[in-house]
Design brief:
By secondary structure, this protein is α/β, with parallel strands linked by helices. The protein is built from 13 helices and 13 strands. The structure holds nicotinamide-adenine-dinucleotide and thymidine-5'-diphosphate.
């Protein structure tokens, strides 16, 4: 038995691979293109582990996919590979279309051909799990009910539109071709190994570097934060027991306004690594121009996965965030290593200040 994971060198995929191999001896073949967001340092602990086979490559490469599927005969494919940052999708959506839409299509076709070649139990038990986002549902007002699986798709950013397109392809390959698929739509993740272009790691990184902490607009946009290890346990639950063709929303029951998140991070940093001048990191908070088309609120109704599969998050926001800040303080070298030239160019372009 083997699992094929795509995008397993990124933030969530690498957590999934590490957790999987910590709990099971089932080998993982990890296909990742190693874009700016993919980092083998996230998998350093598995470097000498024969159960982990890393392959650098693109989910949009049909020949590579066909070869890997036929060679390793996985009993499931878990697709994390994507371009994932909203702000980058606003600056340019080409890579998002290529990977999130065309890449998903190529993966579906390769998996369909492979699944078609399987017989008996192997065919019956095979699964393709597609990892997606709550951003496909659009934006909520303060009084709207949280997103349920039945909500209409109303993607607003180029990123969300490409993820919505990929979800629709996955759905169609199930309905038309009978492909045994599962889709998960998760809220914002945070935790160790999170690339410091996203809010939480960016704020920790900037705070410690003495740089401004950029808050878009009024900072009252709400996200439903989930610790990355909880997302991975939810994916394992859906892979093990999810009903074919169904989608499962995954969330932390944990809505917070961005400004509150940043103040909480500053308080944690003030306690764990106080500034040498005795001032709070909160003095570095700076309000900047809002993101175009910025979604106001995301919130997940996670009752379906709880009722059907008994999954609930293990971490609270307080425990998860404290663990995360501790990890960044203990892993300054990791941050240093990922803040490469290309990343510095991005920060300069986005925030107009040299890092
Ligand atoms: P990430 O950007 O950290 O990692 C993406 C990984 O995919 C990287 O390792 C990258 O090298 C790889 N990749 C990109 N294009 C590829 C391609 N064409 N072929 C093979 N590999 C490729 O993203 P993440 O935060 O780990 O997100 C993983 C998945 O979870 C994505 O599908 C994302 O849409 C979804 N998701 C993320 C969040 C979140 O808060 N980060 C929330 C819900 C859903
Ligand atoms: P982000 O981490 O980019 O995730 P997403 O856009 O997928 O929700 O952003 C989380 C929230 O934080 C979002 O409302 C945008 C906001 N934000 C800032 O205010 N400042 C920043 O520098 C960044 C990166 C995000």
């Amino acid at each position: 038995m083997t699992l094929l994971v795509t995008g397993g060198a990124g933030f969530i995929g690498s957590c999934f691979v590490r957790d999987w191999l910590a709990q099971s001896d089932e080998p993982v073949v990890n296909l990742d293109k190693l874009t700016y967001a993919g980092n083998l340092a996230n998998l350093a602990g598995l470097a000498a582990d024969a159960r982990h086979v890393f392959v650098q490559g693109d989910i949009g490469d049909p020949t590579l996919l066909a070869g890997l599927l036929s060679q390793h005969q996985p009993r499931a494919v878990v697709n994390f590979a994507a371009e994932s940052h909203v702000d980058r999708s606003i600056h340019g959506a080409d890579d998002f279309i290529q990977t999130n839409v065309v890449g998903t299509f190529r993966l579906l076709e390769a998996v369909r051909a492979y699944w078609g070649s399987l017989q008996g139990d192997a065919r019956q038990h095979f699964r393709l799990l597609h990892v997606s986002t709550d951003e496909v549902y659009g934006s909520l007002s303060a009084s709207d009910a949280a997103f349920a699986e039945t909500n209409r798709y109303e993607p607003n950013s180029p990123y969300a539109a490409t993820k919505a397109a990929s979800d629709h392809l996955v759905r169609a390959w199930h309905h038309t071709h009978g492909l045994p698929v599962l889709t998960t739509n998760c809220s914002n993740n945070y935790g160790p190994y999170h690339f410091p272009e996203k809010l939480i790691p960016l704020v920790i990184h900037h705070a410690l570097a003495g740089k401004p902490l950029p808050i878009y607009g009024d900072g009252q946009q709400v996200r439903d934060w989930l610790y990355v290890g909880d997302h991975c346990s939810a994916i394992r639950a859906v892979l093990a027991g999810g009903r074919l063709g169904e989608t499962y929303n995954i969330g932390g029951w944990n809505e917070k306004a961005n400004l509150e998140v940043v103040h909480t991070l500053c308080r944690l940093l003030d306690a764990m690594q106080p500034r040498s001048d005795g001032q709070s990191y909160a003095t570095q908070i700076t309000f900047v121009t809002d993101r175009p088309g910025h979604d106001r609120r995301y919130a997940i109704d996670a009752r379906k996965i709880e009722q059907e599969l008994g999954w609930r998050p293990a971490e609270t926001f307080e425990t998860g965030l404290a663990k995360t800040v501790r990890w960044y303080l203990d892993n300054a070298q990791w941050v240093q290593d990922v803040t490469s030239g290309a990343y510095r160019d991005w920060v300069g372009q986005q925030y107009g200040n040299p890092p």
